[in-house]
Write a structure and sequence with these properties.
alpha+beta, Nuclear Transport Factor 2, Chain: A
């Protein structure tokens, strides 16, 4: 028995052909404003009152000049009784100062898909 082709397997799981969408990026740093905008975009995806901690991010510029960012996060309810953790991928358009949250995953299969796409971007 052989292991499946991971990019092909992930494409099957996600129902897309991501091979043509994701290319390696060139390392790029986020500005403070971009980091804050990214934090706001992530926080909007959480229930009201939850606290967000971004654990790690890696960013790179793609051939279109957009900044691709992949990262890990954790979040907790205001009383700390509920917690979440996951992986995200965002895209920043510096020409329009816009942040687009492209993927946010908290479950095993979805995390695998986002992680695989981040690997294709050269960010994990």
């Amino acid at each position: 028995m052989s292991m499946p082709d991971m990019p092909g397997f992930v494409d099957q799981l996600s129902g897309t052909s991501s091979r043509s969408k994701f290319e390696p990026t060139v390392s790029a740093a986020l500005t403070q404003g971009e980091e804050q905008a990214q934090r706001i975009a992530l926080t909007r995806e959480l229930p009201p009152g939850w606290a967000l901690t971004i654990l790690r991010t890696n960013s790179g510029s793609d051939r279109r000049g957009r900044i691709q960012t992949c990262g890990l996060y954790s979040a907790a309810s205001s009383d700390g009784s509920q917690k979440r953790s996951g992986i995200f991928r965002s895209e920043i358009d510096r020409s329009g100062d816009a942040v687009y949250l492209r993927s946010l995953a908290e479950t095993g299969t979805q995390k695998l898909i986002v992680y695989s796409n981040c690997q294709k971007l050269g960010l994990f």
